[in-house]
Specification:
CATH superfamily: Spore Coat Polysaccharide Biosynthesis Protein SpsA, Chain A
Distance between the termini: 42 Å
Number of helices: 7
CATH topology: Spore Coat Polysaccharide Biosynthesis Protein SpsA, Chain A
Strand order of the largest sheet: 3-2-1-4-6-5-7
Helix content: 25-40%
CATH architecture: Alpha-Beta Complex
Number of strands: 7
Order of helices and strands: EHEHEHEHEHEHEH
Strand content: 15-25%
Length: about 220
């Protein structure tokens, strides 16, 4: 039985999905692929019957965290041991999948290159700051805490009850696995890709939510 499912939360990424799925099947042919359509309003729904993937659709947009949780619940129900999460917009290179497949950590997090000219300066500062805070709180070195390219051991998230339905879901996950489950976190070097795709990150609200999430986990897990 297949042990790993590749989980892709998608919101209005119909233009990039066919090419992404082809590459995933090329680099990880033994993995199942699950697409969670998070209330897209583009042509994603029309593509679902033409793509070689399993799919679940939210009737309305619920947020990236909610889409990831839907996918992990499905993976647990279907007996998978690991989930690899990838963004649908083409920023995660499927050629890096073999690196994740080889990792046996409880949580393997993609580590991008923080370099001007490759990553926007605002993102460099945000990622650098948040990664150091998360590393301090988790007690493990996390090079790129905001990266959504990850491999997750499903037993390491049993009992995980997130408060966020959006991007801080991924922050909560790192802290839960590292602080609550005492799991091992690994950093996987990956290619850094930035195109013209529109980011759904809300800079000020998401930054504030990050600090609230980090602070809450620190105080609720410190005795």
């Amino acid at each position: 039985m297949r042990s790993t499912v590749i989980l892709i939360p998608s919101y209005n990424c119909g233009a990039t999905l066919p090419g992404l799925i082809r590459q995933i099947k090329s680099h990880a042919p033994d993995c199942e692929t699950l697409l969670v359509n998070d209330g897209s309003t583009d042509n994603t729904s029309l593509l679902l019957d033409t793509l070689p993937v399993c799919s679940i659709s939210h009737p309305v947009r619920r947020g990236k965290g909610a889409a990831l949780q839907t996918g992990m619940d499905w993976a647990l129900t279907h007996g998978f041991r690991f989930v690899i999460t990838m963004d649908a917009d083409g920023q995660h290179d499927p050629a890096d999948l073999p690196k994740f497949l080889k990792s046996n950590a409880d949580l393997s997090v993609g580590a991008r290159t923080f370099r001007p000219g490759i990553m926007p300066l605002a993102r460099i500062f945000s990622n650098w700051t948040s990664s150091r805070i998360i590393s301090l709180l988790s007690g493990q070195w996390v090079r790129d805490s905001q990266c959504g390219y990850r491999k997750i051991r499903l037993t390491a998230v049993q009992g995980f009850i997130p408060r966020s339905r959006h991007y801080q879901y991924e922050t909560e996950m790192i802290l839960f696995i590292a602080r609550i489950k005492k799991g091992r976190v690994a950093n996987i070097p990956i290619r850094t890709i930035y195109g013209r795709e529109k980011s759904n990150i809300r800079h000020l609200p998401d930054t504030w939510e990050f600090f609230v999430t980090a602070w809450r986990y620190f105080w609720t897990t410190t005795k």
